[in-house]
Amino acid sequence: MENADWRLEGEWIKNCNCAFGCPCDFNARPTQGECKGLLGMRITRGHFNDTALDGLCFFVTVQFPGPLHEGNGQAQAIIDERATPAQRNALLAIMSGQSSDEGTLFHIFSLIVSTMHEPVFAPVQFAFDMESRLARVTIPGVLETDVEPIRNPVTGAPHRIRVVMPEGFEHREGEVAAANIHSTGANRFDTKGSHSTLAKVVQTPQGVAG
Description:
The protein has 210 residues and is mainly beta. It has helices at residues 85-95, 105-112, and strands at residues 6-16, 35-48, 51-52, 57-64, 73-80, 113-122, 125-129, 134-139, 143-148, 150-151, 158-159, 162-164, 173-184, 188-204, 207-208. Strands 1, 2, 3, 4, 5, 6, 7, 8, 9, 12, 13, 14 and 15 form a 13-stranded mixed beta sheet that branches. A hairpin with an 8-residue loop joins strand 12 and strand 13 (173-184). It is globular, with a radius of gyration of 16 Å.
């Protein structure tokens, strides 16, 4: 399929059940053997062909029985209920990977997910402060997750660490933090004090820009 003209710029969250540092970013196996988590963003500026996507949020919850590259994953898309039918179709088209180059985030996602559950359209409350490593997503009846700084186990002081991936297909630089997740949609799971990455990203059909 020929790529559409699209661009997503915004605030990115990836939370999962692994220990701080996300083994996937280092080509290592998941901390507990399986991957359960979510990723998504609030689009500050974006479009799909002639359809504007500014201000909308989308997320995907996932479950994989092993490392992501081994596939067999389950996923469910969650899209801001404020999206019009055209905007919903645009976001689902982007997430399908059919309008992305080979080896980019959404294309890879399409290859490793074997079960795609029906999407959910719901109200989204989103708070994001990358500098402070604070974030919160509330989608009633579907997903709740909050992010805070990792704490020094002795002093309780906030701990700061960044991951830089010059050739990353998800983001180039992210702040590592601690997450709690309560997922009650098709993929049901809970985590406490697990991994989070906060980033500001630009995704295009060719991959991460900038």
